[in-house]
UniProtKB/TrEMBL annotation:
Coiled coil, from the record: none
Pfam families associated with the record: Rv2466c-like
Protein name, as recorded: DsbA family protein
Gene3D superfamilies, per the entry: Glutaredoxin (3.40.30.10)
Organism the protein comes from: Streptomyces lateritius
Protein origin, superkingdom: Bacteria
Signal peptide: none
InterPro entries registered for this protein in UniProt: Rv2466c-like, Thioredoxin-like_sf
Length: 211
């Protein structure tokens, strides 16, 4: 593989456990390949807002009561403190939400903000629509690259001509580490460089494993 640095765009909703698994793979990829990740938000709440009547009741309740807060806080942090805080805050939030099993509580969000040195009052944006325009714009940027019939995460990587090609996924558990992470990254670049490639998929038979 070329040692020239590659940029990958990664859209996530901090609430999604599958996006969290894939994001930890990308963190690992940054260690083993010359890759820089640009972290961006998308929103399960926005993605599903026009089809709430079609989703199971439990999932609908999650979207209506839990999905807006965390992503709003990340967008507020980005708007007020710069792009560089997004990845750090996502790591702090995801570790608490998923690995530690705390879920998207006010306490978990506040602890994550404190961990990365961000102001505590950013947690208040969980209940505010102040930056929803920016949230929706980031969401639409990502989903516009892959279409409406996917979820989170969305990853965008260079294709054969250098222009970025976006995919949903890869969906993987547990997170590949070391050379396994590198091989999956190399394969992602390979399929991205294949004109007309759209999808490889199989039924999930395992839940996210937060190892």
């Amino acid at each position: 593989m070329s040692e020239s640095r590659t940029t990958a765009d990664f859209w996530f909703d901090p609430l999604c456990p599958w996006a969290w698994m894939t994001s930890r793979w990308m963190v690992e990829v940054e260690k083993v390949r010359p890759v820089d990740v640009r972290w961006k938000v998308m929103s399960l709440a926005v993605l599903n807002e026009d089809k709430l009547d079609e989703v199971p009741a439990e999932y609908r309740e999650m979207l209506e009561t839990k999905a807006w807060g965390p992503v709003r806080v990340v967008v507020a942090a980005q708007q007020l403190h710069g792009d560089e805080v997004v990845g750090k805050l996502y790591t702090a939030l995801g570790t608490r939400f998923h690995n530690n099993g705390e879920g998207p509580t006010r306490e978990a969000i506040s602890a994550a903000l404190a961990e990365v040195g961000l102001p505590a009052e950013l947690a208040d944006y969980a209940e505010k629509d102040t930056y929803d325009t920016e949230l929706r714009a980031s969401h639409e940027e990502g989903i516009g690259k892959v279409g409406q019939d996917v979820g989170t995460p969305v990853i965008s990587v260079p294709g054969a001509d250098g222009d970025h090609v976006a995919f949903f996924g890869p969906v993987v558990t547990p997170t590949p580490r070391g050379e396994a992470a590198a091989r999956l990254w190399d394969g992602t670049l390979l399929v991205a460089s294949t004109p007309g490639f759209y999808e490889i998929k199989r039924t999930r038979t395992a839940a996210p494993s937060f190892e």
